Amino acid sequence: MTSNLQQSKLRLASLPLTEIGCNSSDLTELRIKKRQQQTEFNDSISIKENLNNIDGDREESANKLFEDLFGRK
Question: Is 13 part of any domain?
Fold first, then answer.
């Protein structure tokens, strides 16, 4: 268990249950939001990776065109 998790557990253990104020519908809503955020994050990473691949392909194409035109590397 990480130290952050241990600290969080200690903080929660010291709070009265009335202060926490979560019920099962709140937890379900939090889980849904967390999944949506994770999906959006994964989508943005995929888009960045695709853009990087496109840039790499363009660079290779430009190098090949240069070699074809000028006959050197």
Answer: no
